Amino acid sequence: MFNLQTGPKEVFPYNYYSSVLLANDNRTGVISEACKFIRDADTFMKNIDSIKGCRIDENHFDLEKYSTFYCKQDVRILREGFVKFRNDILKEFDLNVYDYVSICSIANKLFENRVYFPNGNLYDLSNKPREFISRCIQGGRCMLSDNMKQKSKKKLIADFDAVSLYPSAIARLYTLEGIPKVMKKEMLSTEYLMRHLFDDDQKEPI
Question: Which GO terms describe its biological process (predicted)?
Answer without folding.
Answer: DNA replication
